[in-house]
Write a structure and sequence with these properties.
The chain is α/β, with parallel strands linked by helices. The chain has 16 helices and 10 strands. The longest helix has 33 residues. It starts with a helix and ends in a 21-residue tail after the last helix. The protein binds flavin mononucleotide. The site of flavin mononucleotide (FMN) has 23 residues, from helix 16.
Length: 389
């Protein structure tokens, strides 16, 4: 889609549909899908629908302040970009387009370990704050090396993802042959040929790969690397000792991503994290687990203000952002929404998604009688949440 037509899209769902039209099905499903029956993908959305807002009247402001701070980082919008791997699948601009979109919106782009441009390339292209997401690789020397590269390149915070002890089973990907290594089927080939705009961009760039790891000695074909990363990137024996170890390695802001219980959140805070990201990986890991927004109040209450809590998963509307902030999150993260934006129209599409969410949140705050995001609290919810309600 050209820039102007992306900018005319009204909702995140419109952007999703535009991405669905432009992308081959195997790519769209890789982005859109979740684990197994996708129960948790739905729970992430249903949790928001189950919460009702309760506005106050005659108490608003002419302009609303949407700014906040997360782990010491000032943001002009309480919506950060979650880490998502292989973004060049969605658009040739990939992570570079997403990082520029975040900068223009005044927020943070979080680069995935499994990115399709390198740590250094994204740092060079980004003109705003960037964070780096880590997995606990089996070989902890790889983790140390990534931490050092992130430090040298100027990433402002590390995000340790802890909900991938093994890789979840995304069955759309299996059916579509979208495994790593990829297994194209005759049906995929035809479908891809019907998406010439996407195909031109895809073939016009460098070969798609986990760009950060082409030099660690497993050959540089995408297939060999994919198999390597799947085997090495996760560790079912990862433990709290690893978090303590990482805290020693990295003195800057550290956030933990993939927490849904108050006890785990407290443990992480006691080990010195600066932020807790309440997340189930967008329903892409353990299916049947609690929806992210449903887990938020317990985590906020357990953390008790000792670290910043961020909600990640299922956010598609400005009202969703308001609900998470009312429960006690400092901000939210979005994954699929900006990836749909990339798929629909590159960095311009990703920026369109952030603009939509900003407009919707601003209108929501005005309708709620709030002067800014800092005014939101649990009194703005008609539905009781958490032990303190
Ligand atoms: C295509 C895709 C790739 C992802 N890759 C990663 C990743 O490499 N590391 C990670 O921590 N989370 C990854 N995630 C999960 C996101 O960071 C985030 O938790 C999730 O998308 C939030 O849910 P939402 O998509 O409903 O906003 C990925 C998500 C998607 C959609």
């Amino acid at each position: 889609m050209r820039g102007r037509s992306v900018r005319s899209l009204t909702t995140v769902e419109d952007v999703r549909q535009a991405a669905r039209r432009r992308l081959p099905r195997m790519v769209f499903d890789f982005i859109d899908g979740g684990a197994e029956d996708e129960t948790t993908v739905r729970a992430n959305r249903e949790g928001f629908a189950d919460l009702a807002l309760k506005p106050a009247v005659l108490s608003g402001a002419r302009t609303r302040d949407l700014s906040t701070t997360v782990a010491g980082q000032r943001l002009s919008l309480p919506v950060l970009l979650s880490p998502a791997g292989l973004l060049r699948l969605a658009h040739r601009e990939g992570e570079l387009g997403a990082a520029r979109a975040a900068a223009r919106a005044g927020t943070v782009f979080t680069l995935s370990t499994g990115s399709s441009y390198t740590i250094e390339e994204v740092a060079a292209a980004a003109d705003g704050p960037t964070w780096f997401q880590l997995y606990l690789w089996r070989d902890r020397a790889v983790v140390s090396d990534l931490v050092e590269r992130a430090r040298v390149s100027g990433y402002g915070a590390l995000v340790l993802t802890v909900d991938v002890p093994v890789v979840g089973q995304r069955e759309r990907d299996l059916r579509n042959g979208m495994t790593l290594p990829p297994r194209p089927t005759p049906r995929n080939v035809l479908d891809v040929l019907r998406r010439p705009d996407w195909l031109r961009g895809y073939l016009g760039g460098p070969a798609l790969t986990f760009a950060n790891f082409t030099d660690i000695g497993r050959g540089d074909s995408a297939t060999a690397l994919g198999a390597f990363v799947n085997r090495e990137m996760t560790d079912p024996a990862q433990s709290w000792d690893d978090l303590a170890w990482l805290r020693e390695q990295w003195r800057g802001p550290l956030l933990i991503k993939g927490i849904v219980s108050g006890a785990d959140a407290r443990h992480a805070v006691d080990l010195g994290v600066d932020g807790v990201i309440v997340s189930n990986h967008g329903g892409r890991q353990l299916d049947g687990m609690v929806g992210a927004i449903g887990a938020l109040a317990e985590v906020v209450d357990a953390v008790g203000g000792d670290a910043d809590v961020v909600l990640d998963g299922g956010v598609r509307r400005g009202t969703d952002v308001a609900k998470a902030l009312a429960i006690g999150a400092r901000a939210v993260m979005v994954g699929r929404p900006y990836v749909y934006g990339l798929g629909a129209g590159g960095g311009t599409g990703a920026l369109r998604v952030l603009d939509i969410l900003r407009d919707e949140l601003d209108r929501c705050l005005a309708l709620m009688g709030c002067g800014g995001v800092g005014d939101l609290d649990r009194s703005h919810l008609a539905t009781p949440v958490g032990a303190r309600s």
